[in-house]
Amino acid sequence: MSAVEFIEQNLHPDGSQAFIIRNETALDERAREALLDRAMGEGRRRKSSEKLRRGRLPSEGLAFVARGINGALLGTVRLWDIQAGHDAAGKPVRALLLGPLAVEPSLKGKGIGVALMRHATAEAARLGHGAVILVGDPEYYERFGFSGTKTADLAMPGPVERRRFLALELKAGHLEGCHGLLTPRGRRSSHAMRVLPVSLRFSR
């Protein structure tokens, strides 16, 4: 099953909201920040996950937005390059950190977040990444295959509720034996993000 088919099956059945999922560009930045403030509040900047994102750019090709057919930004998700501690042999393990995932508050439950999640994880797998880690409610993220099984010996650079510290292996065994502190890696931030091409269009 292709990524397009996988996402289309998860669109909300009432036909109330058509939207496009595409790669984020620099032109999305202001609307994205405003959406995050509405959906998550200013406390989002104090989260432990923010320590892994601060001063970095998202992983190449793994920042997405959902926009309505009128152009309004409806949702956002990014994935970030991190080191997930070391494996049993002491070698550093590369992984992705997902977040934040946010949807316009008035449109929650319309399938936008689900579509963003399925597209983001499918693209991460297509690009050859081995695992995705996040902090979030297991009641929501378990549907995508996330669990706390592979994070038992990993730690965030700050306080975290263990039940919400989750991972998804995109390659079987990628996090086997992993232990230690999550640390940032990848591209350093700059004032302008490279504009990326439109990826996919979804409507209902």
UniProtKB/TrEMBL annotation:
Keyword presence, Transferase: yes
One Pfam family named in its UniProt record: Acetyltransf_7
Keywords: Transferase
GO MF, any single term: acyltransferase activity, transferring groups other than amino-acyl groups
Record-annotated N-acetyltransferase domain positions: 19-167
CDD domains xrefs: NAT_SF
InterPro entries on file: Acyl_CoA_acyltransferase, GNAT_dom
UniProt cross-references to Gene3D superfamilies, sorted A to Z: 3.40.630.30
Protein name: Putative N-acetyltransferase YhbS
